[in-house]
Structures are given as C-alpha cells and as structure tokens.
Design brief:
about 290 residues; four-stranded mixed sheet; three-stranded mixed sheet; PDDEXK_AddAB-type; PD-(D/E)XK endonuclease-like domain-containing protein; PDDEXK-like_dom_sf
Amino acid sequence: MAQDKYTAVWVSHTSIGDFISCPRAYYLKHIYRTPKTGHKIKLMSPPLALGQAVHEVIESLSVLPVDQRFKVSLIERLHKVWEKVKGKKGGFISDESEISYRSRAEAMLRRVMENPGPVGKQAIKIKMDLPFFWLSPEDNIILCGKIDWLEYLSETDSVRIVDFKTSRNEESPESLQLPIYHLLVHNCQKRPVDGMSYWYLERSDTLTERPLPNLEKAHAHILEIAKKIKVARKLNVLKCPHGGCRACRPFEAILQGEAELVGVDEYKSDIYVLDKSLEGQKKDSVVL
C-alpha cells in the first residue's frame, strides 16, 4: 500500500491507552465530532488543566539557549499560560479550587527553578510540530507523539528522554509511554537514546531513571495493538465491552447534554466540563 498520511491510521500513547481502556472511549475522544461544530470533544478537569499549564511552561524553555531559560521567572510564564485554563475553562468551579491547583503548579515550577536538572542543560528539539514516523508503511499506520524533553549528552553525542509528571500517582511499570517515546525518538532524529527518566515534579528534586525498552519488542507490541485499532475502526466495532465504564461514561454524558461547553482549544476541540465533576469540587472545598 502506498504511504498516505492523510488516510493512515495515526496512533499515539494517549490513543492506544484509551483503546486498551475502552474502545468506546477511544471512539469518543479520537474519532467522534460534534454535529453542530464538526469539532472533536475534550473533557477538561483541574488535574488536566494543571498538567497542561506546567508542561506548556517547561516545553517553552526547550527552544531557548540554556543561559536564557530562567531570565524570566517560570511563575511569571505560568501566569500567562494559566489564562488558557482559568475558571471553568480549566474545570474549576470555585476560586478555592483554582487557587489550590495553581499553587501546586507554582510549587512544581519553583522546584524546576531551584533544581533545574536537565532543564538547565543543553536540549535537543525535534524539528517537527508533532513527531511521527511510519510504524508500518504496509499497514498504513503512523505512530506519533510529543516528547516532553530531550536532554543532550555531549560526551556521547546522545540524548536522554525525560518525561515530566504532574500527577501524584506513580507511573505503572506496564505503561507503554516510554516504549512509544523510545520508538519516536529513535526514528525522528539521528542521535542514539542513552537513557530515560521520569521527573515527578510534585515530590522530587531529581529524576527517576527507567530502563531502556527493547526497540524490536516495543515495535512489535505497539504494532500489534495498532493493527487491532485499525481493524476495529474498519469494522466499526468500537463499543464498550461493559456497556458503560468509567472511561467512556463521562464522554457519553457530553453527548447526552449533561456537560457544559466552556470553550474551544487551540486545536479546535470543543471543551466541556461535567456538572458532576464540578459538584465533586464543591464537596471537596467545603470548610467544616
């Protein structure tokens, strides 16, 4: 089959994870478009807003020379970025909730300023807005994804993959994120990958090293899942195996009119917040 990126099935760490969790959730998040606008739908929540803002601030540093990265305070940069997720746009229903999450974001960025680690060293920037490569030209499947940070190791002319974590949860050892990132970096730039790490920004000043996944095994495993996604799309069998689960129910609620449209993001996705999630915030912020 001729390579055609416009008809290819594109997969990423997020879409693969959604498909594994629930094919219906995968459909609603990555294929479905709202009839009125023709846009995809996105469900915003405070944890997602927090992660989005912190990642955007740090990512903006990778294009700057090392000696320019901290001339402007990261807290000041956050203030500008936070406008995108302010109020209901970030799923916040109360000032107290938003202040709490914003304070967490500020603390993470202060940690980076005080302990820059890889952010204070040379970095490699892949010259693609969205890095991608042909996972299987024969099957017309593309693997894509953005890498948080590529630290340049000048002694060996190699790179280290760094993924910033804003969640309080530990990443599962079974996560496909690092195997996918290893494949992307290996195929989208010329330097060898010499290490991989997580940086848990809320609790650690240093990186958590992870073993390098085997490229051949990673490629075979990811391709196997990607082929299942392609078949499911072709046969239109993207249904929830449980008749409704925690992965797809929130998006079904959007279709049922039970969510509030609060804006459109830079990728032209309609942003919604769920009334139930907002009620949960109300309960969380009650002072007794």
